[in-house]
Amino acid sequence: MNNTMLSDRIEKFILEMLDKQTSDQVLLKRKDVADLLECAPSQVTYVINTRFSSDDRFVVESRRGSGGYIKISLRSGNPQETGKFSPSTQDREEKSKGQSRGKENPNSIQAIENGLDGYYRMLVDYDIISGQEYRLICAMTRTMLEFCPESHRREAAKTMIHRIEWALKGE
What we know:
The protein folds into two domains: 2-103, Transcriptional regulator CtsR, winged HTH domain (Phenylalanyl-tRNA Synthetase, Chain B, domain 1); 106-169. The protein is 61% helix and 9% strand. The protein is globular. It has helices spanning 2-20, 30-37, 41-51, 89-104, 109-125, 131-147, 153-169; strands at 25-28, 58-63, 69-74.
């Protein structure tokens, strides 16, 4: 539950920064945001990858390294948008309905895959794994979730992430 609250705080912080900007984009440094919100930089990356996707009208660009940044832009093309980030009431209602549907069954294959996909994409974005390895992990995740009893899916997903991290560290 604390992870959800932390993710919500990170998302709210980024949305507030977007709202304060005179343009429809914000430049962030993961470490600065993490220090400010007292969390790990990887948690900031996770939130950006899972909550600021192109499906949600955002474009995310990143540059690695000590001078690196993450640029989050509001996608253009919606004639109703006028400058600053201000989602319409309908957009907020649709998003909250989607979130409540996910809360109804957090053990669904789709809900778990969506959560894991942000983590896997982060590994690709930071050149930790290749595109082929990403597709392989996604296929293995889907297979595991289809054969895993629903009551054990979340624990199996957590174990999978830990084992991927161990393998990447060479342990």
